[in-house]
Amino acid sequence: MDAMKRVPVREQDPKERAANFKEVCLGYNEEEAVEEAKRCLQCKNARCMQGCPVSIDIPGFIKQVAERNFAEAARVIARSSALPAICGRVCPQETQCEGVCIRGIKGEPVSIGKLERFVADWSREHGIVPEKPETTNGKKVAVIGSGPAGLTCAGDLAKLGYEVTIFEALHEPGGVLTYGIPEFRLPKETVVRAEIENVKKLGVTIETDVVVGKSVTIDELMEEEGFQAVFIGSGAGLPKFMGIPGENANGVFSANEYLTRSNLMKAFRDDYDTPIAAGKKVAVVGGGNVAMDAARTALRLGADVHIVYRRSEAELPARAEEVHHAKEEGIVFDLLTNPVEILTDENGWVKGMVVRKMELGEPDASGRRRPVEVPGSDYTIDVDTVIMSLGTSPNPLISSTTEGLEVNRWRCIVADEHNGKTTKEGVYAGGDAVTGAATVILAMEAGKAGAKGIHQFLSGEEKE
Amino acid sequence: MFQITRSEKLADKIYLMEVKAPRVAHSCEPGEFVIVKMDEKGERIPLTICDFDREAGTVTIVIQTVGASTERMVERKAGEYFQDFVGPLGNPSDFIKEDIEELKGKRYLFVAGGLGTAPVYPQVKWFHDHGLEADVIVGAKTKDLVILEEEMKAVAGNLYITTDDGSYGRKGMVTEVIRDLVEKEGKHYDVCVAIGPMIMMKFVCLLTKELNIPTIVSMNPIMVDGTGMCGACRLTVGGQVKFACVDGPEFDGHQVNFDEAMKRQQMYKTEEGRAMLRQTEGDTHHGGCGHCGGEE
């Protein structure tokens, strides 16, 4: 085996998987994992660890894999992450741990993500459960939202002995892991539920169907229900629309709606009641991971799918692997193209979309070259469904009902990135609710920071 | 899990259920709604709150069967459970924030159409509980479909019932009653609150605009999460896009684009029927509806 090259990971055949919702990437088996682990150079000053938002001891766990001590590898990861089966699947490793791997200078970096996934899957399959602290310290902490930030914060605090209750607005815990990321990328039953169960085994209670800000306020939780600190990890749930004519037509959806119907409500399965207008010819507007997820979901529901994105391929914000998978499955990319109007029939249904060609101009504030309209380049594409995937912003339900909680002009909660501290005493926040839409792993990092901040606050170690 | 404490059929396809949901009962107000998901496979169904008892921790909802999930929901009996019951969602009616003395000087007219009687009831009751009196028009297709009459009688000022076929109360649409009250019977109203089918709310608004009566309507579009996440419930109000779940559900009726809202309401009509067809026809259903992609 060429040490410069990674052990390839097995995947479902693109043609086959385009018609099912089973996981695309099949992961490593023991032999493949051990072989890949041996490629790790065991750097003393490991750059991969610095590249990891939650600072997993990457050479440490890989060494255990190479020596076939899989249970020990799982323990090494568990010291830093409560959700390894999830992170191994959805982290943008190419810009984090793998992006700085020394192996990557001359050859391909070590497949850290796939190894993490292997260890997590192995330990789940072998019934390894996290150890619960023997006693609690009697201090109650409320966590709002059961997405990656909330689960991580809750898990860390439970390990420190706190009595943690997570309040979730939807009927299923998991946040974006449950409603947003599709089954074929992140299996719900075997991976998401299993890792949430592990967090519960640490002693965390999850109460679903509670919309904090409506069912109960933060002040009520603290004053009437005895919670001494609160962590807000409520995410960025409000979808954005373009504001172009025809956007309220039947057949125009936010990616959130489309994905929620399919992932959370399981509309893709015949035995569930929730419908989904799958569409025959679908345009997904946007170029992020969510756009790829929506496009690949529509494809699996039987549609011809185009991604319509106003910049060029180099600027696509989605993970490289998602773009690669989308192309393999037959999704067409209409790049440097921007919608200007959605056309409707007499009953209010989408019958086409007028788009305009774009070209790249000078770099904008994000450092990416700004797309500029090409005059007179409008043309109409034949679609019956349009999915808007333009990003999301935080929900104001909590900030508008909590006295003393400061938000910025994007309605993001103002919080210290090192400890999650907000402008309200005892209230901490992190994840998309603070930063606006970002990634699972960055939310987890913020959850860890919030747990640290709350622990300092409640154990009296806070220094100011 | 949320226990059903009372279940009762009010009329054809209309059922009343009282559910133990202490958090919702503790914080809900007139105008707000809940989302109910009966079991693992059910849809999330938005339903307006008809009544609540803070002490007992119960919330009353009224359900009309329109699709697979609601058909199954109403089969649940007292003592059984709904898996999920979340709320309150949306915003309370504006008047609950108003100064009581100022409210005393205003004449309110509530117009309830069919199932809309359920969300109108707690609002009228709120008026009654605060020593205020409001007139109420309840409209239904026919006598048997008039619901909550006794309850409404107990809290309303003047109660006018009208049926399309004249089988009970006055004969005709609610709009005819409004016109009669204002033009023939010399009534004056400062605010109208109209809740019912969209087509009714549209015509009430056309009339009250002509009569110069500010009108509040409660929109009940298609929703998934009910917390602002999906945007399925978006509608145009005064030229701006609003989400019924977090910006409403009550809006200035004279600003609502009803035609667009009614078109959007049709979006899943065939899809809901689709789910039911699948249930009743099972494997024998081969896409005859032309919408389910089952033709392959």
Description:
- The complex is a heterodimer of chains A (464) and B (296).
- Chain A is of the alpha/beta class and 464 residues long.
- Chain A has 3 domains: 116 residues, Alpha-helical ferredoxin (Fumarate Reductase Iron-sulfur Protein, Chain B, domain 2, Orthogonal Bundle), CATH 1.10.1060; 163 residues, FAD/NAD(P)-binding domain (3-Layer(bba) Sandwich), CATH 3.50.50; 150 residues, FAD/NAD(P)-binding domain, CATH 3.50.50.60.
- Helices cover 33% and strands 17% of the residues of chain A.
- Chain A contains 18 helices and 18 strands.
- Chain A has a 5-stranded parallel sheet. In chain A, strands 8-16-9-10-11 form a 5-stranded parallel sheet.
- Chain A is globular and about 65 Å long.
- Chain B is an alpha/beta fold and 296 residues long.
- Chain B has 2 domains: 88 residues, Translation factors (Elongation Factor Tu (Ef-tu), domain 3), CATH 2.40.30.10; 125 residues, Rossmann fold (3-Layer(aba) Sandwich).
- Chain B has 10 helices and 16 strands.
- Chain B has a 7-stranded antiparallel sheet with strand order 6-1-2-5-4-3-7. A 7-stranded mixed sheet of chain B has the order 11-10-9-8-12-13-16, sandwiched between helices.
- In chain B, helix 6 runs parallel beside helix 7 and helix 7 runs antiparallel to helix 9.
- The termini of chain B are far apart.
- In chain B, 50% of the residues are buried.
- The C terminus of chain B is likely disordered.
- The chains are: A alpha/beta (464), B alpha/beta (296).
- At the A-B interface, strand 7 and helix 13 of A face helix 1, strand 7, strand 14, helix 9 and helix 10 of B.
The arrangement of helices and strands of chain B along the chain is EEHEEEHEEHEHEHEEHEHEEEHEHH
Helical content band of chain A: 25-40%
**Strand line-up across the major sheet of chain B:** 6-1-2-5-4-3-7
CATH hierarchy, class of the largest domain in chain B: Alpha Beta
- Overall geometry of chain A comes to globular
Q: How many H/I helices of chain A? A: 18
Count of individual domains of chain A: 3
Q: CATH-wise, what's the superfamily of the largest domain in chain A?
A: FAD/NAD(P)-binding domain
